[in-house]
Write a structure and sequence with these properties.
Blueprint (H helix, E strand, L loop, with lengths): L1 E4 L4 E2 L8 E10 L2 E10 L9 H10 L1 H45 L3 H4 L4 H9 L3 H16 L8
Helix pairs in contact: 2-5, 4-5
Amino acid sequence: MQYEILDNAYWEDGIDDKSVVKCIRMHNEGNQRRKEVCVFSKFLPDRSLCPRYKEVVSVVGTERIDANTVERRQRKSSEAKHNEVKQQQQQKTQELEHLFHMKLKAFQIPEIRDSERKTLRTKLRRSESEVEMNAYATLIIGLETGILNERTD
């Protein structure tokens, strides 16, 4: 069986150590190609040099493996930052959707729905947090039921 080592190998343990290399070997099986991801340690259990490790390093070259390792680390770091931003955006979206649904529920309460207190209803509609929304809802319900008295000073 013949195989080809792709030139995208990188140091699994980083550029400093260089004791583990990871590569992709493409096997030619008739008219089909099969991909195999391989990890080779520099030394075998008996502390002798691994021939497969040596083959990968000689085919790809240490400079290319170093460059691939640096590029991979930068890409993974960039992907991690991108995923973190994406996760924060999703969390913010979920919070806004939750707040929207809470406001819908608040306006289903008869005291709020039928209230003539336009400024408080507007403030409830424009509230930016659940606590703020609950405060305005409580005020409207309290004023509409007579629990709270509206004072004009």
